Amino acid sequence: MKRLGAAIVLSLLAWPAAAAEPGRDLRLCYEDQVEWSWIRPAQGLDSGYVLLQMVKAKLGLNFDYVGLPWKRCLSEMQEGHVDGAVGASFVAERQVMGAYPTDAQGRPDPTRRLAMNGYHLYVPKGSDLGWDGQHFSNLHGPIATIVGYSIIEQLKASGATVYEMGGGENQTLGLFQLTIGGHAQAAAMITAGGDAVLHNHPEIAAQMVKYPVPLAEKPYYLMFSHQRVEADPALTERIWSAMAEVRDTPEYVAALQAERGQ
Question: Residue 29 above 60 pLDDT?
Fold first, then answer.
């Protein structure tokens, strides 16, 4: 972690930071989990933290982060109580809640993403559950995930009964404990969060493994509320575009490699 912190500091010092301006404070919510987060460094994982740090330095912004259960985070954005939500995959129905960065055709623009991530199944060792990328085999129990997660509809469409776990900052760990306790056949978790549990809890890693075939892999975005976009469309576009610009710099590449422990 010291190496990561030093790499980010050096990258920010090398970056031509803009002076902060009035009206450049943005209140952003994120899913507050003890095990992992989009807005904290996560060694070995691309959490988006490095990119956010460098974008706000480049543009002279201040991000005020608010940790909330994910479903509430999206609701707070929709109501305009926060300016945006950190780490949202594209779901068409979410467009009523807020705005994604789009390309010239109005489609979500992955070049202006926060990070690439996805979902994996985490199963008890010795489990006979199978997943070939499209279909389950030996599915005879519910799959647990967190309420509000985009993977829920995919799981249901594939024939799974889904146990949706409610709020709380220990949801990620709770999914694994629920599965170990026999209340679910597997846990479906954002890969960064699931991997963090296995890394942080050897007692869990001794009993559960990540299924090798991912459920989904996709870009995750910084969404903005419609209220924020309407109030300052130039700023929101500039932030999204800065994500693509920063990602192509040597400073970002070096800091991200340090985050991943490379």
Answer: yes
